[in-house]
Amino acid sequence: MKKSFLSFAAVVCAALIVCTADAGAQVVKLFNGKDLSNWNLFVDKGGASAQEVYTVKDGVIHVKGTPFGYMYTKEKYSNFILDVEWRYPVEATNSGIFLFVQDGEKLWPNAIECQLHAGDAGDFVLLGGSDLFEFMSRPGTVRPAFPVVKKTNESSEKPVGEWNRAKIYCKDGNITVFINGVYQNSGTRSMHKTGYIALQSEGKDIQFRNVTVTPL
Description:
Blueprint: H1 2-19, E1 28-29, E2 39-43, H2 50-53, E3 54-57, E4 60-63, E5 69-73, E6 80-87, E7 96-101, E8 111-115, E9 124-127, H3 133-136, E10 148-149, E11 164-171, E12 174-179, E13 182-187, E14 196-201, E15 206-215
Antiparallel strand pairs: 1-15, 2-5, 3-4, 4-15, 5-14, 6-11, 6-15, 7-8, 7-14, 8-9, 9-10, 11-12, 12-13
């Protein structure tokens, strides 16, 4: 009964967040299609430099996947709609979109990850001590290194080589995720309500394009 109530509450929260979207709000291009001048670049020590890991070609961001790291916005964002297209050009692998990233560059920053791992797009991973009510509400649960709040529906991802679209609504620390137009997850009561937005390097090649944010 408790689990059913929480699922219902999450769906209601998702509907409220989506309904608050301002159709007249100004869309901001986080990626200008030419270079990464709007982003800070971070990679873990060793291996390729950040400039080798994150590159732009033909209007597309190319991320090598190794070394691990992330590229993050130069500004922090609070209430917004994030729209991102991504694809795995060669093989299904791993990456993620980080929300509410806190200051201090490190391999696993304090942030909520919207998982892009093949087959799991829409899961939430709680990085660096971050929290969501959907995980905190499990009394007696031993906290793993990377707590996960699983998505609601079956995978709605497209095959390797095809472009996917993640649309993420963030409002007052509550997060709702749609993958290719399919509702996948809601997270509520994030411990942070503002932070940077980041795209992850974790595994192998991934590409991004049409990265925009719309203030709410």
